[in-house]
C-alpha cells in the first residue's frame, strides 16, 4: 500500500436523505446496510486506501451516538476519527467549512458519504492528485443521465471550461463525483460564496471559484472504474448488487476497514485476530481470519 497522506479527510454524512424517505425518518442513510456492511464503510476505506489516517465525519446530531457505537474514534483500525455536527443542511461547501479547525494548515480530501468508488486505477489517480500542493482536483465519470449531476465541460486539451449543476441540456456526459481534493485556500473561498436559491453553499460554486483562478484539474475515471452515488433507491440497489457480484466472484471484500488497516501496516496480526473474534459468528469475521491465513 502507500504511506500516510499529508492531507486530512472529511466524510460528509449529514443531510436528511429526502430521496430515501420514509426509510430515513429514523436512521441516517449512511448507516444503511449496503449489501453486507454499513454504507459509511465504503467512503471511509476509500480515504484509508489513500493513506489518510485523520478523518472527520460531519453528520447530524441525532446520528452521533450511532456513529460512535459503530466506528468509535477509529483506534481499532489505527486511525483517528473525529465528529462534527451540521445543525441543518446548508450544502456541501457549508459542511466543509465545519472542518476548518480539524484540517488546520493541511490540505484536505472530501468524500460524500453515499459515494462508492471501486477500481485499481483510483490508486494511481489518487497519487497524482495528492502530489499537487496548490489548487483542486476533482473526478468525473461518464454517465447516461448527466442531467442528474453536476456536469463538467472539458476542452480538447483536457482543461476545464465550466461546471453546471443539474443542467437541462448538459454540455457533456461527465458527471462530477463526490470526491474532491482541495488545498488550504478552500475555507477562505467558501467564506466568499453566496448562498444559492436553495439557501445552500454549493460545491459547484466552490469548484467554479477554482476554475476562475485556473486552479482546478479534472481526472476522468475510465472504464476500469466503478462509481455509485447511492442517494436513490435504484442507485442504492445497483451499488449493493455490484458489491455482491464482485465479492462473490473474487472472494475479496470491498470496503473492509480492518483489511485496509492491516495491509497499510496500521494494525498487526494480533489486533486483526481480536477484531475477528468480536465478529466470529459472521461471514465478515470469517473473512478477517482468511486474510490472516493468506498472509502468514
TrEMBL record:
<comment type="function">
    <text>Catalyzes the formation of dTDP-glucose, from dTTP and glucose 1-phosphate, as well as its pyrophosphorolysis.</text>
</comment>
<dbReference type="GO" id="GO:0008879">
    <property type="term" value="F:glucose-1-phosphate thymidylyltransferase activity"/>
</dbReference>
<feature type="domain" description="Nucleotidyl transferase">
    <location>
        <begin position="8"/>
        <end position="243"/>
    </location>
</feature>
<keyword id="KW-0460">Magnesium</keyword>
<dbReference type="InterPro" id="IPR029044">
    <property type="entry name" value="Nucleotide-diphossugar_trans"/>
</dbReference>
<protein>
    <recommendedName>
        <fullName>Glucose-1-phosphate thymidylyltransferase</fullName>
        <ecNumber>2.7.7.24</ecNumber>
    </recommendedName>
</protein>
<keyword id="KW-0479">Metal-binding</keyword>
<dbReference type="InterPro" id="IPR005835">
    <property type="entry name" value="NTP_transferase_dom"/>
</dbReference>
<keyword id="KW-0808">Transferase</keyword>
<keyword id="KW-0548">Nucleotidyltransferase</keyword>
<comment type="similarity">
    <text>Belongs to the glucose-1-phosphate thymidylyltransferase family.</text>
</comment>
<dbReference type="Pfam" id="PF00483">
    <property type="entry name" value="NTP_transferase"/>
</dbReference>
<dbReference type="InterPro" id="IPR005907">
    <property type="entry name" value="G1P_thy_trans_s"/>
</dbReference>
<dbReference type="GO" id="GO:0046872">
    <property type="term" value="F:metal ion binding"/>
</dbReference>
Amino acid at each position: 500500500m502507500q504511506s500516510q497522506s499529508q492531507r486530512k479527510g472529511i466524510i460528509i454524512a449529514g443531510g436528511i436523505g429526502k430521496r430515501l424517505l420514509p426509510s430515513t425518518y429514523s436512521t441516517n442513510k449512511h448507516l444503511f446496510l449496503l449489501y453486507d456492511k454499513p454504507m459509511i464503510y465504503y467512503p471511509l476505506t476509500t480515504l484509508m486506501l489513500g493513506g489518510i489516517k485523520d478523518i472527520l465525519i460531519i453528520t447530524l446530531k441525532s446520528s452521533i451516538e450511532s456513529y460512535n457505537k459503530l466506528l468509535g474514534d477509529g483506534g481499532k483500525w489505527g486511525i483517528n476519527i473525529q465528529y462534527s455536527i451540521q445543525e441543518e443542511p446548508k450544502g456541501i461547501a457549508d459542511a466543509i467549512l465545519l472542518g476548518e479547525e480539524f484540517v488546520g494548515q493541511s490540505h484536505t480530501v472530501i468524500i460524500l458519504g453515499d459515494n462508492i468508488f471501486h477500481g485499481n486505477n483510483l490508486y494511481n489517480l489518487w497519487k497524482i492528485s495528492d502530489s499537487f500542493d496548490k489548487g483542486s482536483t476533482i473526478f468525473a465519470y461518464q454517465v447516461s443521465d448527466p442531467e442528474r449531476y453536476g456536469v463538467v465541460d472539458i476542452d480538447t486539451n483536457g482543461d476545464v471550461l465550466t461546471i453546471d449543476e443539474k443542467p437541462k441540456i448538459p454540455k457533456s456526459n461527465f458527471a462530477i463525483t463526490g470526491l474532491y481534493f482541495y488545498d488550504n485556500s478552500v475555507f477562505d473561498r467558501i467564506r466568499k460564496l453566496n448562498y444559492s436559491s436553495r439557501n445552500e453553499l454549493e460545491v459547484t460554486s466552490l469548484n467554479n471559484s477554482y476554475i476562475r483562478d485556473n486552479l482546478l484539474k479534472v481526472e476522468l475515471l475510465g472504464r476500469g472504474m466503478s462509481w455509485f452515488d447511492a442517494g436513490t433507491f435504484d442507485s442504492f440497489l445497483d451499488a449493493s448488487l455490484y458489491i455482491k457480484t464482485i465479492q462473490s466472484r473474487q472472494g475479496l471484500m470491498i470496503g473492509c476497514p480492518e483489511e485496509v488497516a492491516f495491509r497499510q501496516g496500521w494494525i498487526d496480526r494480533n489486533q486483526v485476530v481480536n477484531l475477528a473474534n468480536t465478529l466470529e459468528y459472521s461471514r465478515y469475521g470469517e473473512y478477517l481470519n482468511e486474510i490472516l491465513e493468506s498472509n502468514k
